[in-house]
Backbone:
């Protein structure tokens, strides 16, 4: 007879779980309230090329933009500059940069939130075993004589199950919201990587520009020292005047002060690179190497591709999807919440009888709750979510407009700096010729030495301007790459299912 009862129990349990599974599947396939999300339409772009990439390029010498047929940058975009030392630094940055690590952990945090939201799909099961021993009062006149002054023991092993089926899609919207938020975090991570990589490239070219400026000033100091020695010798021999000595000394001292000052900017750029690489500035240095760079043609693609290449635009669009899911959550608040609760277990006065079949207890029953009056709270929250969506839509459009502005700005900067460099090179040659002629006039006694000083100052000023323009041209090239999104495109953004995938361990590598 006992065996028959156990078989009956197993059969009833199977029926119960079958019904519960059916209800669960029906619930997961139920309706979802709230607006369906549609990605905003990209801006209508009539131009086949960026405006600044075609402005009088046939008539103007200087830097040339790559043809749209050359495709787009991919992967390690900094390799387009063909600078091995920069490549090595960028590789270190991608591994050791602390800010990138911070954004990566925020991305992992966002993925964990998805798992938290998905956990609401399932019942909550709670075990609460307990033991108590109590004694009733002997002075209770209205109590049963059998219970007066009695000591009792209670062993209990209850199991409580509570489940709120997702009839209206509230949980599904919360999961979608978390998935979109994780995608936003993934795009923010890529944007931060690009920002740090571009900063490193800019600091590197700034240092090389400072090294070249140091060389220019060192050569100027050497030339001014020779001029001072010559004027001092002529004065000592009685063939020169003392004012020429003073003028040449003042020129030398000014050049020496300028040469000393160059070290400050170089040191600060070097320290900034150390921080980007996750290193202590005191233990890091970059060798001096004066170099002049000319940026290569950078493939820009066509304007219609820009929306798919910028991680900040991708983040803005995913933020919009997240806001739309939040509206769905707001709609779900207007519907009743149904909770199915069940509890069962064993209770007995002695431990040895606790798990006897006669000691079983159970209860089951659904409940529903619906707010009748909340002073307009839910409706106000819904209006808030809708306003947030509209604000995010405007932010998406503004981000897109800013992206096109930044590309055109960088193209204009690179093109114009390249033309300025050619003109400034001519100015340097002319000023050097002017200095040679003025030295000849001074040596023949036609002009005073102050005219030589003026010519020297002109040469130095033109050389400094040329060096600054060459650095600015490289910085504009880096800014152009950054404005184009580097080597990234939206196909690299993880899908909702990918961000929701289980992560094996907390030490998940950033490269993934």
Residues:
């Amino acid at each position: 007879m006992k065996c028959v009862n156990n078989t009956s129990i197993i059969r009833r349990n199977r029926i119960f779980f079958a019904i519960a599974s059916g209800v669960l599947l029906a619930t997961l396939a139920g309706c979802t309230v709230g607006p369906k999300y549609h990605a905003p339409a990209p801006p209508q772009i009539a131009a086949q090329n960026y405006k600044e990439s075609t402005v009088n390029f046939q008539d103007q010498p200087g830097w040339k933009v790559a043809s749209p047929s050359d495709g787009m940058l991919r992967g390690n975009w900094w390799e387009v500059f063909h600078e091995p030392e920069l490549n090595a630094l960028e590789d270190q940055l991608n591994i050791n940069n602390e800010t990138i690590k911070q954004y990566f952990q925020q991305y992992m945090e966002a993925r964990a939130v998805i798992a938290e939201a998905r956990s609401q799909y399932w019942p909550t099961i709670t075990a609460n075993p307990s033991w108590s021993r109590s004694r009733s009062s002997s002075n209770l006149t209205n109590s049963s004589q059998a219970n007066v002054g009695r000591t009792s023991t209670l062993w209990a092993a209850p199991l409580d199950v509570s489940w709120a089926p997702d009839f209206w899609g509230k949980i599904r919207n919360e999961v979608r919201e978390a998935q979109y938020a994780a995608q936003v975090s993934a795009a923010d991570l890529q944007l931060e990587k690009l920002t740090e990589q571009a900063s490193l490239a800019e600091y590197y070219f700034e240092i090389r520009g400072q090294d070249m400026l140091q060389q220019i000033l060192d050569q100027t100091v050497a030339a001014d020292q020779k001029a001072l020695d010559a004027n001092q010798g002529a004065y000592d021999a009685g063939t020169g005047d003392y004012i020429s000595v003073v003028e040449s000394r003042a020129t030398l001292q000014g050049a020496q002060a300028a040469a000393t000052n160059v070290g400050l900017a170089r040191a600060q750029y070097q320290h900034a690179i150390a921080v980007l690489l996750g290193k202590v500035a005191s233990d890091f240095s970059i060798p001096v190497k004066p170099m002049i760079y000319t940026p290569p043609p950078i493939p820009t693609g066509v304007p219609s591709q820009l929306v798919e290449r910028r991680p900040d635009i991708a983040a803005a669009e995913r933020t919009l999807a997240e806001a739309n899911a939040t509206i769905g959550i707001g709609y779900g608040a207007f519907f009743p919440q149904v909770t199915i609760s069940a509890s069962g277990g064993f209770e007995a006065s002695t431990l040895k009888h606790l798990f006897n079949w006669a000691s079983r207890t159970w209860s089951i029953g659904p409940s529903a709750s619906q707010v009748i009056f909340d002073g307009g709270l839910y409706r106000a929250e819904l209006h808030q979510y809708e306003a947030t969506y509209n604000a995010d839509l405007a932010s998406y459009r503004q981000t897109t407009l800013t992206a096109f502005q930044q590309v055109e700005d960088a193209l204009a900067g690179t093109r114009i700096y390249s033309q300025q460099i050619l003109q400034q090179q001519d100015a340097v040659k002319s000023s050097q010729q002017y200095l040679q002629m003025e030295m000849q006039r001074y040596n023949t006694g036609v002009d005073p030495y102050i005219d030589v000083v003026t010519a020297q100052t002109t040469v130095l000023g033109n050389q400094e301007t040329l060096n600054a323009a060459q650095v600015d041209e490289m910085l504009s090239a880096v800014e152009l790459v950054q404005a184009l999104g580097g080597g990234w495109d939206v196909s690299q953004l993880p899908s909702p299912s990918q961000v929701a995938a289980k992560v094996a361990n907390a030490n998940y590598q950033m490269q993934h």
